[in-house]
Write a structure and sequence with these properties.
The complex is a heterodimer of chains A (65) and B (441).
Chain A (H helix, E strand, L loop, with lengths): L12 E6 L5 E4 L2 H15 L7 H7 L1 E4 L2
Antiparallel strand pairs in A: 1-2, 1-3
Chain B lengths: L12 H4 L3 H14 L2 E4 L8 E4 L2 H8 L5 E2 L12 H4 L5 H8 L5 H13 L16 H12 L2 H6 L1 H13 L6 E3 L7 H10 L6 H15 L7 H27 L5 H7 L1 E2 L2 E2 L2 H31 L1 H9 L4 H11 L5 E6 L3 E3 L2 E3 L4 E5 H4 L35 H18 L2 E4 L4 E4 L4 E5 L1 E5 L1
Parallel strand pairs in B: 2-10
Antiparallel strand pairs in B: 1-2, 3-7, 4-14, 5-6, 7-10, 8-9, 11-14, 12-13
Classes of the chains: A alpha+beta (65), B alpha+beta (441).
Amino acid sequence: MIDPTDPKKTYEFHYVLDCPCGKVLTGDTEDDIVEVAQAHLGQEHPTMSYGPEEILFMARRLVKG
Amino acid sequence: MTTDVKWPAWEDAAFYAEDAETMYPSLAVQRHEAPVYWYEPPGYPTGFWVLSRWEDQRFVGSNPALFSSNYGFAIGDASDPATVIDQLPSWAQDAIRQGDLSAAETRRMISKGKLSMGDPDFEGLILSDPPRHGNIRSVLMKALRPSLVRSLKPRIAEIADEFVAELEPGVETDFVTTIGRIPAALMTELIGVPRAMRDEFIEMASAQMLAITIDPDRDPAETARIQGLVEKFHAYCGELLAERRSDAGEDLVSIIGASEFEGAPVPHGLAISFIHTFVNAGETTRALLSFVAYALAQHPDQRAILAERPELIGNAIEETLRFYPLNWSGCRTATQDVEIGGQQIKKDDYVVMAYASANRDEDVWKDPDVFDVTRSFDSAHQSFGYGEHACPGALLARVDSTTIFERLMAQYPNWELAGPVVRWGSPFLQGISSLPLRFST
């Protein structure tokens, strides 16, 4: 059971981005996710190009497992 | 193991009116026993495949060359045309009555007709395939670009504060018609609708949402009411577009009016469809907000976590989307024979991705029937779709809902149900039409 008043309980967040090819990309910071996404695009989808703004548009900041 | 739980009646509005305690076990049984299932609804001219597993839906969503969006996007599009033809514009009725359309072309005509607001030149993003889909989407995303959406956060907070200030502690309030109106109010501002027109515009937009969720059992008087409002709405959007093309401002309609598509100004039918998308974003976000408030009323322990940890509100929005999706399903048409989960899907077969089922898929989600605002999301829910056709307004919906709940919970961290909740539902979309709540500090 989660105790919401537990001051020691912390949650880690990360950025999650679903590439339409099915690959789930994650990064701990905005810079990380941009780097991971651009590396994935370069390797798997070289004809596609997205800037940091578009990548961050698609990424979500969620609790990390 | 056998079970008495009935399998879903995917086409039947009555199934979607059931309690969650009835619907989700039904989805689970079919997901376990027949995850790729050929379903033949009573009264439909042909059956369709239902994909229940998250992984299978991801495969379909990420392969637009194998699964086309051209031939319908909702279960109702596969209805017997005779049962829905009166809800379509005359040009769509004429095309269907000629009788030479294939099953797939008939679905396209029904889906285009209901979306079109009567405009024969209407072209919707949702009914397009690559590469044209990408070209259309890039124009739309100029208007809904991330920098614009991010810049809206202070204004969303301002509007939220105005609405929250009108709440009275301890007094019964219908969330849907109070806080739930914020996204539509914001969208009318973004579109540039004059303040005096705001309420009428929202009423017309709501009617357009009903027109999309075509219903074989709809009362003729209700059909006539909806058609009247939709025609008025189409005329108003046309006037707005013409005005902004001649005298551009900074609103979304002006951005579309000034944009080019394939080297020429955006065609009228396409521009109208963009306005329609903006409007839908306001209405569907109202449904999302209502489900968040409802889920948190049902789970006060989870609401207490958010009160202590507002940084988890974004995660709670995501969990609500997974737990109570607005968009229950999306459809595609197979462009060639293909095997999924050991089943042979034939060219032109209609394929339904049951998003609500994938969101509870035990292969993806730990304790899927538990509402947990601290859930870790290493996978994505299906509630905004997936792949090329993922919801273009998803970012705005997330920013809207997160900001609104941050402002609401700062003032009123507690609320409880104050009366019966009235849901509305169709095979395509779900929402709440009345959510009586009592707020306290």
